[in-house]
Amino acid sequence: MSTATIATILLLGVFLVLVFLRVPVVYAIGVASLLDFFYLGINPMQMALKFVSNLNSYTLLAVPFFILMGELMSAGGITDTLIAFSKELVGWMHGGAAMVNVVASFFFGGISGSSSADCASLGPIEIKMMEEQGYDREFSTCLTMASSVEGILVPPSQNMVIFTLAAAGVTTVSIGQLFVAGYMPGAVLSIVLMIYSYYYSKKMNIPVTGKFNLKNCIKAFFKAIWGMLAVMFVVVGVIAGVFTTTESAAAAVVWSLCVGLFIYKGFSFKDIPHIFANVVETLGKVLILLGVSGAFTYLLTYLRIPTMIATGLFSITSNKIIILILLNILMLCLGCLIEMACLILMLTPVILPIWMQLGLSPIHLGIVMVLNLGIGLLTPPVGSTLFIGSAISGIKIETLSKKMVPFYITMFIALIILTYFPQTFMWLPNLLY
């Protein structure tokens, strides 16, 4: 075997073995990369340089601001106003509490950008609300977890920022276009979840409660709008070219701080150090992962692994439909085993060249990858949102995993729509850019 082949087996083999041994992914990447550097005779200083250069990005500055914005809004009491608005908007429908759950997650996703934050913040309120309307605890928890995936699709999302950074070695991806493209996939996922919830509500004879009241809906909207305006700072600012992504995120943080302190009054000045401590803890995990992935990505390119995979794939079939099925299966399977941010950094340089050879847009891949890996957050053995759902509901993970099957199927339908019918969401970025 050639040196490159042995180095490839060493890199991927050591990484996978360490992952299966439940070694934290960041250490698995670092150890596998370092061993490969030694084997190939590359100066280990190159690894340190790649670590630093991967963090030396102006766009990356947006990530801590997005995390801080989500923390400020969560602490500021935005959850109550969003649920109140969602109740007035869709609570009168058949299966009203389930509909409120889905819609509230759509709105909250634009603020937190995180599935875990959505489930942890809204989950206790939504599960209790659904049980009061007659839903069982298992269904309520499963819907809460499934709807939380909207949070990583609806902009602004730090995972989308990470995707643009990971794609930089292959092509330039506009973060503004990716943000705009995220709204329709979030809506598609919401719609399929609402359709299933409607079917389940009819089947279980869940009673209809309340009637639509336009006056109350408008009143609830104006209470919730203060928090949602933070999202408008980011999305509208970037689309209009008034701000860069980083500048708009910083402006949104200032707005969120003012809203939380003076309008919603969910926290005081003495709570701010604790909020910042949470941000630093989260950010530390993200940054060290970004750093070590720089060395890993360098080795993938050095060993021409993306080219090897593309050549092998196209030698099997040139059928676009089959190739897309295989790529989706790859992302779904790995998403069940490895953390989301890590997979975005690892898979993007590998899959993006293949995706572009099929004549498809990088924006399209960004959306499909985020949804694929978002489903992975709901699956054992490492699904963080699944663990949070189990913790807040008191239901065993094994039980929740079985009850999630109809939701997996529902989300696969959304994935198929977004994979094979990109025009359902690509029209919006094409219209605005």
Count of DSSP E strands?
Answer: 0
Q: Roughly what fraction of the amino acids lie in strands?
A: under 5%
The helix/strand class is mainly alpha
Number of domains: 1
Shape: globular
Distance between termini? Answer: 48 Å
Order of helices and strands: HHHHHHHHHHHHHHHHHHHHHH
Helix content: over 70%
Mean pLDDT: 87
Reported for the largest beta sheet, the result is: none
Integer-rounded radius of gyration: 22 Å
Low-confidence stretches: none
In terms of quaternary structure, the protein is single chain
Tally of separate helices: 22
Domain TRAP C4-dicarboxylate transport system permease DctM subunit: 12-423
Pfam families: DctM
Membrane topology: Multi-pass membrane protein
Keywords: Cell inner membrane, Cell membrane, Membrane, Transmembrane, Transmembrane helix
